[in-house]
Design a protein that fits this description.
alpha+beta; about 30% helix
Length: about 290
C-alpha cells in the first residue's frame, strides 16, 4: 500500500487547543471537503490538568493525578485547576506532555498512526532542535508513514488560494504577520509579536476580580467568557459611551455572564451569557459576572 492509499491525520497544534481532523483513504481519493467528512474535526485542550483536591476518577489514578486533554471536562468543577502545557511562548518545550496529549487524541479518535500519514502545524522559523524533537515523536513514538509540517499561515494561504497578501495569525501566546508571495509564506520577512489570547484572558481575570468577583483561579471560565463576549469595536469611543448608559436608556453593550455551579450541565460547563437585567440575584450593583 502506497502513501496515496493511506488516510491523513491533521492536527492544528495550538498552545491552548488542538484542532484535530481525519481524512480516510476513501475520502481522500474522492476529494471530500470538510463538511462532508465522516468524522468531523474536533477540538481538544492541549494541556494536562491536576484538580486542587484528590480525585477519585480513574483518569487521575491512571495518569499520576493528572487529567489529559479533554478528560478534564468530566470534572464537576473547574475551579483551581493546575495546568501544565506542552507549548510555552509558541514552541513545544515539553515533548513528553505533547506525546501524552497526542496519544489521548489518537486513542479517542480511534486512529492508528502507523496506517496513516500526518499533517501538523508548526511555528514560523522553528529552530532545528525543536524540529528534531517533532521528527522523533512522529516517527519513533507513533510510527506515522509520512508527515508534513507547515506554519498555519502557509496552509491558510493554500486553502483560500491566496497568491499574494498578508496573513495575520493571532494565537494563544503570540501573533504573527506573514507575507504571502507567489502562494508561498515568506518566513524570513515575517514579524512576531509576543501578544496573544493568554495575555487578554489574564487581563480580563484581573479586571473581573477587581470589579466583581475573585476569578484569578478560573482561567477556563474567563477564557470562555472572553471568547463568547469580547469583540473588536468598530467605533471604540461611541461604544465606550454606550457602556455608561443605563439599560433604560438603550444600553446595547452590557451583557450578564452567569458563572457555572456544581449543578451546571455539560453544555454550560463554563457558564453562559444572557441579556443584562434578567438576573434574579446580583453580586453587587452593576456587576456583570453573576451567580444564577
Amino acid at each position: 500500500m502506497g502513501l496515496d492509499d493511506k488516510g491523513i491525520v491533521v492536527l492544528d497544534n495550538g498552545g491552548y487547543n488542538i484542532k484535530a481532523g481525519y481524512v480516510s483513504a476513501e475520502e481522500r481519493s474522492r476529494g471530500c471537503d470538510v463538511q462532508s467528512l465522516s468524522s468531523p474535526p474536533e477540538i481538544f485542550p492541549n494541556a494536562v490538568a491536576k484538580p486542587p483536591k484528590k480525585s477519585s476518577s480513574v483518569a487521575t489514578k491512571r495518569n499520576g493525578g493528572f487529567l489529559v486533554s479533554a478528560e478534564l471536562y468530566d470534572l464537576p468543577s473547574y475551579s483551581g485547576l493546575f495546568f501544565r502545557r506542552p507549548i510555552e511562548r509558541g514552541y513545544v518545550k515539553e515533548w513528553d506532555l505533547q506525546r501524552d496529549v497526542w496519544k489521548y487524541i489518537f486513542t479517542r479518535s480511534k486512529v492508528e498512526p502507523k496506517e496513516n500519514c500526518f499533517v501538523v502545524t508548526e511555528p514560523i522559523a522553528l529552530p532545528g532542535s525543536l524540529r528534531r524533537g517533532m521528527d522523533e515523536l512522529v516517527f519513533e513514538e507513533f510510527g506515522f508513514a509520512s508527515y508534513y509540517s507547515a506554519p498555519p499561515a502557509a496552509l491558510v494561504a493554500r486553502h483560500f488560494d491566496i497568491t499574494d497578501g498578508l496573513v495575520l495569525d493571532s494565537g494563544f501566546s503570540f501573533s504573527h504577520a506573514v507575507p504571502i508571495l507567489n502562494s508561498g509564506a515568506q518566513q524570513q520577512y515575517s514579524r512576531r509579536l509576543d501578544l496573544g489570547g493568554k495575555v487578554l484572558t489574564n487581563q480580563l481575570k484581573e479586571v473581573v476580580s477587581f470589579r466583581s468577583w475573585n476569578m484569578m483561579d478560573e482561567f477556563l471560565v474567563i477564557n470562555a467568557a472572553k471568547e463568547e463576549l469580547c469583540y473588536v469595536a468598530q467605533d471604540f469611543l461611541a461604544e465606550l459611551e454606550d457602556t455608561r448608559l443605563p439599560l433604560s436608556e438603550g444600553n446595547k453593550t452590557m451583557i450578564d455572564y452567569v458563572l457555572p455551579t456544581h449543578a451546571s450541565d455539560k453544555e454550560n460547563r463554563f457558564g453562559y451569557s444572557r441579556p443584562s437585567g434578567t438576573s434574579k440575584k446580583m453580586l453587587k450593583k452593576g456587576a456583570s459576572f453573576i451567580f444564577d
